[in-house]
Design goal:
216 residues; alpha+beta; 8 helices; WH-like_DNA-bd_sf
Length: 216
Amino acid sequence: MEHTYQPIAVISGDIVNSTKLTSEQFEQLLNRIKEIQKWITEGNSSNVHSIERGDEFQSVVHDIESALRYTIIYRLGIKSLGNEFDSRISFAIASNADLRESVSESMGEAFVLSGRGLKALKNARLFFDSDSSELTEYFDLLFKYLDRQLTELTSRQCEVILPMLQTNEGLLVGELAEKLNVATSTISKSLKASGWPLISELNRKFINKVVGLRHV
């Protein structure tokens, strides 16, 4: 067991209507979750994950400024599989945690807040909490709008936005168009229609607010 005083983020999610998926769709979903978790670990080797029963997942994130980006990637990565796929995700940031080799056995306020938020989700698909009431209140309404925006995205729009998030906006529109083998003008229209500029701006705002939480 490792105790950390540094703030960590915990992302907890489950699949909406998972029992309605065919065995082929479920396998497709499971592979996508594993791909996302592998990618998150490549971003920071300390990040660890779990998958329970195939339709519940959790990530412990040490690069907390990336927590929102990882959360959106989970959501869009799953939605991009098709209209039958979506997830509910709750993520939280808090200090002081007891981290064990098994994510499901780890403890701390971030785990509690994230799990509690997921259980409380009903019609919404996204929830955020932290041990800083100021941070939680600041993003409360913003994330409600983000949730609605993400929910309304088509699977194709999710496919277009994902590479931008995975490269931390390191792709130019022309490069994205080439990657997806689509005209640059089409990509530009799709990004604008999907609300990407606002999603990107919100992610930058989150980074700026959260990076200051790290202990010196």
